[in-house]
Design brief:
The protein has 335 residues and is an alpha/beta fold. It has three domains: 52 residues, 434 Repressor (Amino-terminal Domain) (Orthogonal Bundle); 127 residues, Rossmann fold; 139 residues, Rossmann fold (3-Layer(aba) Sandwich), CATH 3.40.50.2300. The chain is built from eleven helices and twelve strands. It has a six-stranded parallel sheet, with helices on both faces. Strands 7-6-8-9 form a four-stranded parallel sheet, sandwiched between helices. A two-stranded antiparallel sheet has the order 10-12. Helix 8 links the parallel strand 6 and strand 7. The protein is elongated and about 75 Å long. About 5% of the residues have low confidence.
């Protein structure tokens, strides 16, 4: 007869394998009704964890893994630094994993128990959003982006509201033909920023011009290429809202290459508030994300789950407002 596995118990009880492991090992992080359901399945199926497996699950690494999509975009190192402060203060070490090509592969490494918990920055878009969970054996809290194929609490900025504020600032400066360089389609933060752009135009009775919306991927190259495409196509615009600061910096470079002055001819604004925006020429108008608040909240939720202060990590969205900072790139009012 085939041996009953953790996966069998999880399927029977309708929970994740991580929940089964915590219930069987008595870690104290499973809500009582769920615990009773799991243990009923254990008894009914005749599941018996081996002593070695039980001992392994009870070991603590004192490591927290932080999975990031890129270490090139300056926004993520700033977020990493903020997370590290909170993790170190509680006596944990931070393991940084660049998912780059595959978030699934990165999480598979983490589930091998090199860390007690995971802070995830990733959309899980490669999985197509077809599965509600991927069997993580450790608690997960997501930052910045909502993972499509993993049930987890998400802590992020008010992206739609922030984008709306940025575009309304440009409208208040007298701009009506406002181009938009989006982030990757399907990533929730990018989609929300595009929604904010559209909402701001709608609020002021300005029609959305599809010819002024160009796709981007959150890179400098994308901002540069999209802006050249707008210019070379003869598009009429007096301002650009880029979905992140790096694309905005690329857009400024493209405008300057074509002899177009910022902000005299075209105003530019971004989103994120990376440190570099204070020092580019011209300095960049942007919506500053509350990076420290996001990092502290996500870290606190994860560590409280590990210590048993929370029965389980709550599966919900938590958003925090940022701040619009007006700088030289949008300083002049159009006539």
């Amino acid at each position: 007869m085939r041996k009953v596995t953790v996966e069998d118990v999880a399927r029977h009880a309708g929970v994740s394998t991580a929940t089964v492991s915590r219930a069987v090992n008595g870690s104290g992080t499973v809500a009582h009704p769920t615990y009773e359901r799991v243990m009923a399945s254990v008894r009914e199926l005749g599941f018996t964890p081996t002593p070695a497996a039980r001992n392994l699950r009870q070991q603590r690494t004192r490591n927290i893994a932080l999975v990031v999509p890129s270490i090139v975009n300056p926004f993520f190192p700033e977020l990493v630094a903020a997370v590290h402060t909170g993790v170190a203060a509680q006596g944990y070490s931070l393991l940084l994993i660049d998912s780059h090509e595959s978030e699934r592969a990165a999480l598979r490494v983490v589930s091998s128990r090199i860390a007690d918990g995971v802070l995830l920055i990733g959309s899980m878009s490669e999985l197509g959003g077809t599965t509600p969970a991927i069997g993580m054996d450790v608690p997960v809290v997501a930052l910045d982006r909502a993972p499509a194929a993993l049930e987890a609490t998400v802590v992020q900025c008010e992206n739609e509201e922030g984008a709306r504020e940025v575009v309304e600032h440009l409208i208040e400066r007298g701009h009506r033909d406002i181009a938009h360089i989006t982030g990757p389609v399907g990533i929730d933060v990018a989609d929300h920023r595009t929604s904010g752009y559209r909402q701001a135009l709608k609020n002021h009775g300005i029609p959305v011009q599809s010819s002024l919306i160009k796709p981007g991927d959150f890179s400098e190259d994308a901002g540069f290429a999209a802006t050249l495409e707008l210019i070379d196509a003869g598009a009429e615009f007096t301002a650009i809202f880029a979905a992140n600061d790096i694309q905005a910096i690329g857009a400024i470079a493209a405008l300057q290459l074509r002899g177009i002055s910022v902000p005299q001819d075209v105003a530019v604004a971004g989103f994120d508030g990376i440190h570099l925006t204070r020092y580019v020429n011209p300095t960049l108008t942007t919506y500053i994300q509350p990076v420290k608040t996001i990092a502290q909240r996500a870290t606190d939720l994860l560590l409280r789950t590990l210590t048993g202060d929370l029965a389980s990590t709550p599966k919900k969205m938590q958003r925090f407002p940022g701040e619009l900072v007006i700088r030289e790139s949008s300083a002049l009012r159009k006539a």
